[in-house]
Write a structure and sequence with these properties.
Layout (H helix, E strand, L loop, with lengths): L43 H12 L5 H8 L3 H11 L26 E3 L8 E3 L2 H8 L2 E3 L6 E3 L2 H9 L12 H11 L1 H30 L3 H8 L3 H22 L1
Length: about 250
């Protein structure tokens, strides 16, 4: 045992000294004084808990406590005092990131099945952003910009999209349209579309006057959407009222 320090004008210190080597006497056990009290030796339960944590890192606190006969809170206190991890290592299957291929954390960012019909895991928010909003190049200026993946998939599957090209702005899209069709070409296409719509509108109206059917029956008979038929009939009724007012 080390010699007790001698302080001038004070009686020599006797008794057990602090285990930290400061030379001060060991104080009585108090709740919030930890640096100057002798540390109790490890008991058999503490040694068993430390041994189980080191040999079985995937066991939870409840599993360790059931083996040694302690509660999981007492096991957590022992592990915290010994500086060992209180949380068990994850035993789940480690997934690889769908973008960079690196292993994901125990709780990865998951993309659940959506319009794209797939399920992916990501190691970071950046990889998740790159997956859902990939970078595409503008067909006109070559600028890289982000476009949502669901839109790209829909454009590749939906036959209503006449082109699969991507443009970063309306300006680039207008340049392409002007170079391909020009103003006259667009005007002719618009006129032809208007003429076809007018012919269909007159055909629906004539059928309505002949049979007296409603929107649903006309749509089923002519293969047209019910909402579209309703719009046609409303436009023709309005036009008929305006013509009657002018004649009268």
């Amino acid at each position: 045992m080390a010699a007790s320090p001698v302080i001038a004008g004070a009686a020599p210190i006797t008794g057990s000294l602090c285990a930290c080597g400061c030379g001060l006497p060991a104080r009585p056990r108090r709740r919030y004084v930890r640096g100057h009290q002798p540390r109790r030796p490890r008991g058999p339960a503490s040694l068993a808990v430390v041994s189980l944590r080191q040999s079985r890192p995937c066991d939870t606190l409840a599993e360790i406590g059931s083996r040694v006969g302690l509660t999981k809170e007492r096991v957590r206190q022992i592990l915290a005092r010994e500086g060992l991890p209180t949380r068990a290592y994850s035993t789940r299957v480690m997934f690889a990131c769908s973008i960079c291929g690196l292993p994901c954390p125990p709780r990865p960012l998951v993309s659940y099945p959506s319009a794209t019909g797939d399920r992916a895991v990501f190691c970071s928010p950046e990889c998740k952003r790159d997956y859902h909003r990939p970078q595409v190049a503008c067909e006109m200026c070559g600028k890289l910009f982000r476009r949502h993946k669901s839109l790209l998939v829909r454009k590749s599957k939906d036959p209503r999209y006449t082109t699969r090209a991507n443009y970063c702005s309306r300006r680039c899209f207008g340049h392409v349209i002007g170079a391909l069709y020009g103003v006259r070409g667009l005007a002719k296409a618009h006129i032809a579309q208007t003429e076809r719509a007018e012919a269909r509108r007159l055909m629906v109206w004539q059928r309505h006057l002949e049979t007296g059917w409603g929107c649903r029956r006309l749509g089923m008979d002519m293969g047209i959407n019910e909402t579209t038929v309703s719009g046609y009939l409303w436009q023709m009724r309005k036009r008929t009222r305006q013509e009657g007012d002018v004649i009268s």
